[in-house]
Design goal:
This protein is α/β, with parallel strands linked by helices. Strands 1-12-2-3-11-10-9-6 form an eight-stranded mixed β-sheet, sandwiched between helices. A two-stranded antiparallel sheet has the order 4-8.
Length: 359
């Protein structure tokens, strides 16, 4: 039962994750976008202006039938900037809320929060207090109109040909978060709808190919991302399902163990076929040294003459036999048989219980 509950919980989690990913969040969008209802979007501004007039959303310079244009983010190339400048010179009103724009006068300081202002800019009647958020103060040129606080100007009006440029020290004033603060909405309507029924334009820059900040991952649509997420969740569910091994462990076949006697015989047969009695004698002597070092009281690295002496004394052999058993060269099969017999005599002698020699 617990296994079924765990699987059901994983499936429910998968459905919830997929639903969250597939739910298109239409209410949000890029910052300063006219269709975004996020805190830093500008959808509220478009709807407010549409209440008193008509606001179009255009890319690049507006047409001749537009009275006022708004730019919140100046990323125009040289051609679009020139076209926008010619449109203003022909009699249009451009409201720029980007302090980095080439249309904006130099920055003179910063401001954070609501400030009291005095305005002599056309269309700002009734504006006495503004909240630019984290905005900048501008340095108005001589003779320019402005909405000024005690520290500097938040709004600057300059003529350009037959038209005018109204610069604002930051776009936050027109965003959804700040539009309903103090007199921000009054300023927006006064600048963008100077007359009832006037036509205004929300101008977006045309971004050149390769100039945006989106990568290849951003090109993947939400349904595709949701499908990939579901595949990942399905893999995790399958892994969790198969990870737990139910029931008793399955005994695996063990490797075949070869008995020691069989291994000894195999090595002996190999040495016999090789016709190397000296090698076989070395194997016998090495094994005897390891087996008899304890009973004889000899270290494994004892010198050859000491081994011969102890074998002659404690192994029941004459000095000559001890020499042949321990270190004499072995060149024939008869020599090998003699060495094996002498080593067997030593083992038999020591197995009778004689005390070992201490060296």
């Amino acid at each position: 039962m617990s296994r079924r509950l765990a699987l059901g919980a994983l499936l429910v989690l998968a459905v919830l994750v997929a639903a969250w990913l597939t739910g298109t969040r239409r209410a949000e969008g890029p910052p300063l976008d006219p269709s975004s209802t996020a805190a830093d979007g500008a959808r509220a501004l478009v709807e407010l202006v549409d209440t008193f007039g008509d606001m179009q959303v255009v890319d690049g310079a507006p047409g001749a039938g537009v009275d006022t244009a708004l730019v919140l983010d100046d990323r125009f190339d040289r051609d679009d900037a020139g076209a926008l400048r010619r449109w203003v010179a022909a009699g249009g009103t451009l409201v720029v809320a980007d302090p980095d724009s080439t249309f904006t006068p130099p920055v003179a300081g910063t401001v954070d929060g609501p400030v009291d202002v005095r305005c002599d800019v056309a269309g700002t009647a009734g504006v006495s207090r503004l909240d630019p958020g984290a905005g900048l103060l501008l340095a108005p040129p001589a003779g320019a109109g402005a909405c000024s606080s005690a520290d500097g100007a938040l709004v600057v009006e300059e003529p350009l040909g037959a038209g005018r440029v109204v610069s604002v020290g930051g776009p936050d004033l027109f965003t959804n978060r700040h539009l309903d603060e103090v007199d921000n909405a009054v300023l927006a309507v006064g600048l963008l709808v100077p007359d009832a029924g006037a036509t205004s334009a929300f101008v977006r820059p045309r971004v050149a190919v390769g100039a945006g900040d989106e990568g290849l991952v951003d090109l993947i649509g939400t349904p595709v991302r949701a499908a990939l997420a579901q595949l990942v969740v399905a893999f995790l569910v399958a892994a969790a399902w198969r990870a737990r091994r139910l029931g008793r462990p399955v005994r695996e076949p063990q490797a075949v163990q070869v008995e020691a006697s069989e291994l000894t015989l195999a090595v002996g047969r190999m040495l016999t076929r090789a016709r190397r009695p000296e090698r076989a004698a070395a194997v016998l002597r090495d094994r005897a040294r390891r087996d008899l070092s304890g009973p004889l009281g000899l270290p494994l690295d004892a010198p050859a003459d000491l081994v011969v002496a102890v074998l002659a004394e404690r192994g029941g052999l004459t000095p000559a036999e001890a020499h042949r058993a321990a270190i004499a060269p072995v060149t024939t099969d008869d020599d090998l048989v003699e060495v094996a017999a002498l080593l067997a005599r030593i083992r038999q002698e020591l197995s009778h219980g004689r005390s070992p020699a201490r060296v």
